[in-house]
Design brief:
Blueprint: E1 2-7, E2 14-19, E3 22-28, H1 30-33, H2 51-61, E4 70-73, H3 93-110, E5 119-121, H4 124-133, E6 141-150, E7 153-161, E8 164-172, H5 177-187, H6 196-203, H7 211-215, E9 218-220, E10 226-228, H8 248-276, E11 280-284, H9 291-300, E12 305-308, H10 316-328, H11 347-357, E13 362-363, H12 367-376, E14 381-384, E15 398-402, H13 408-417, E16 426-430, H14 434-437, E17 438-439, E18 452-454, H15 456-459, E19 471-472, E20 475-477, H16 483-496, E21 500-505, H17 517-526, E22 531-534, E23 537-540
Parallel strand pairs: 1-4, 4-5, 6-11, 11-12, 14-22, 16-20
Antiparallel strand pairs: 1-2, 2-3, 6-7, 7-8, 9-10, 13-23, 14-15, 15-21, 16-21, 17-18, 18-19, 22-23
Helix pairs in contact: 4-10, 5-8, 6-8, 8-9, 12-16
């Protein structure tokens, strides 16, 4: 069957396509429109249909809309309780539900020829669950989803048996771990439903001294759910605007919210394990992007293996909705082959872009060696290779790379990207070398969704990627999956003795990750980057030589 998945409700509009149980393509709309998370000053833009990414997915599958067997939409408006207090988001809820109900008509307008009745609504958290469990390498497993909200719930716990989802518990609104974390994010002066990862990073600088008081307001209920009350944030730290200085109590509040979130997730995982007996757990939902919490689940929880959907936020529900519908139709679904499900360009197309831009460039005999040499000489390198990543993490397809042995490169990269200086950058390392440098988290860890302890003997050797708490959010690289990236890491170690390099996303503050060659050239032209490695070609900053 040929199934197109769509997410277009709260944020992160995206599309994915599955043909005969195989994932062909998946992409976020922001990579095409250049509006991060699908947001703009216009409120309705958060509900925009992913027209460009869906059209591209159809093109990749070689399909016309009339050839689709179904369109899976990752939200079911018939399940919404729009009378709930505390989740109305400024009076938009009824309009949001009305929009979702009209989606079949909207899609017919965008994609003429779509068969009548092709659009199927898939419950939001079931779409999250499918994006984790059905895409994972596990087969049957337990699954836990948690986010801000979906229809009238914020979490689901269950399992997959013979490819079928069995729900064991869910948490109804207004109780929501995601909305509580969002509220803390806003109180701390960051953007709600966008900057939660900043709170996670800030938490490492604080002491969780407000944990006891927060535990009285946010706690697991012992039945596969939890309770969240309205938190009087002012009691713990003053509200902060974006331009205000961060105070120690802000970091302490971040640490406390992070600690309580981890504790509730651990309780949920233990409850789920007791009822399923599974050794494997799949995770999705925006909360699953909290890599610190994921590591506690791995290190202290009852499951032997964890797998987190790389696009665990709402973008991933486009993929999950399509996977779930395929399973409902009786299709055998293949696991996710990797996160590189987005756009790519061949050498001829890249050369044409460079010629059109009229920039001097060279075709390298070995781009991995060229980049390794530049990194060893302390260059900042923009790395643009292969198909782009689906999800928020740069995984060696659209990355900024730097030397990890120079502590000043953390500040340097944060300046390049226009980010707060308390935010860490991540290391990439060959999978067969990772255990020499990092411990506690799972290895391999290809999607940068866990934190690992940096081994004491390595902390002074790779200070740029060692966070203030001695951890790093690593990405392991398997040579069989990405031989070019592996060659670059090997060449860099040969020059420096370090088997790891800094990897952060190829973008600047407020902009989506670079996706196409034009984006790469614009980023290179506007940011102090020394070398752009785009396919086999190298574009050097004027005046910079290794």
């Amino acid at each position: 069957m040929r199934i197109l998945g769509i997410n277009a409700v709260f944020h992160d509009p995206a599309a994915a396509i599955i043909v005969d149980g195989r994932i062909v393509a998946a992409a976020e709309e922001e990579r095409f429109t250049r509006r991060k998370h699908g947001k703009s000053p216009v409120p309705f833009s958060t509900w925009e249909l992913p027209e460009k990414s869906a059209a591209w997915c159809l093109e990749q599958a070689g399909l016309d809309p009339s050839e689709l067997d179904a369109v899976a939409y990752s939200y079911d408006p018939t399940l919404v309780d729009d009378t709930l207090d505390g989740v109305d988001a400024g009076g938009w809820e009824k309009l949001r539900t009305l929009y979702a109900r009209r989606v079949p008509e909207f899609l017919k307008t965008v994609f003429p020829g779509l068969a009548p009745g092709a659009v199927r609504f898939v419950r939001h958290h079931v779409a999250h669950a499918a994006s984790a469990a059905l895409a994972s390498p596990f087969g049957d497993c337990a699954v836990l989803t948690s986010d801000g909200r979906g229809e009238s719930e914020s979490a689901v716990l269950g399992e997959y048996r013979d490819g079928k989802f069995v729900e064991l518990a869910h948490q109804s609104l207004p109780h929501s771990l995601g909305l509580t974390y969002e509220a803390a994010t806003a109180h701390l002066g960051f953007r709600r439903s966008s900057d939660e990862y900043k709170v996670m990073a800030l938490a490492s600088y604080g002491t969780p001294r407000f944990t006891e008081e927060l535990r009285e307001l946010v706690f697991a209920s012992g039945d596969g759910g939890f309770r969240t009350a309205v938190v009087p944030w002012d009691r713990f730290a003053p509200p902060r605007s974006q331009d205000d200085s961060l105070l120690p109590e802000h970091a302490d509040l971040a640490a406390s919210v992070q600690r309580v979130t981890e504790e509730v997730l651990l309780d949920l995982a233990r409850w789920l394990h007791e009822r399923t007996g599974h050794t494997d757990l799949a995770l999705a939902g925006g909360t699953a992007l909290n890599c610190v919490a994921n590591t506690r689940l791995y290190a202290e929880g009852p499951f032997e293996r964890l797998w987190v959907q790389p696009a665990a936020g709402d973008a991933g529900t486009a993929l999950g909705a399509a996977l779930q519908l395929a399973a409902d139709f009786g299709e055998s679904v293949e696991p996710m082959p990797g996160a590189d499900l987005g756009r790519g360009w061949d050498e001829g197309e890249l050369r044409a872009w460079l010629d059109r831009a009229r920039v001097p460039y060279e075709r390298c005999d070995d781009i991995a060696e060229t980049v390794a040499e530049a990194l060893a000489d302390d260059a900042i390198v923009a790395w643009f290779q292969g198909r782009s990543e689906f999800g928020p993490r740069a995984l060696g397809r659209r990355s900024l790379l730097a030397h990890p042995g120079r502590a000043e490169n953390l500040e340097r990269l944060n300046d390049v990207k226009g980010r707060e200086q308390f935010r860490p950058v991540a290391p990439m390392v060959l999978a067969d070398r990772a255990a020499e440098l990092f411990s506690r988290g799972p290895i391999p860890s290809p999607y940068m969704l866990f934190v690992h302890d940096v081994c004491p003997q390595w902390q002074d050797r790779i200070p740029a990627v060692t966070h203030v708490d001695g951890t790093a959010r690593i990405q392991t690289v398997d040579r069989a999956d990405d031989p070019l990236l592996a060659d670059m890491l090997t060449a860099f170690e040969r020059r420096t003795g370090l088997p790891t390099v800094v990897n952060t996303s190829l973008n600047t503050a407020g902009r989506p990750m670079v996706d196409d060659p034009r984006d790469a050239l614009e980023c290179f032209g506007s940011a102090p980057v020394d070398l752009l490695a785009i396919g086999p070609f190298a574009v050097r900053r004027k005046g910079w030589t290794p």
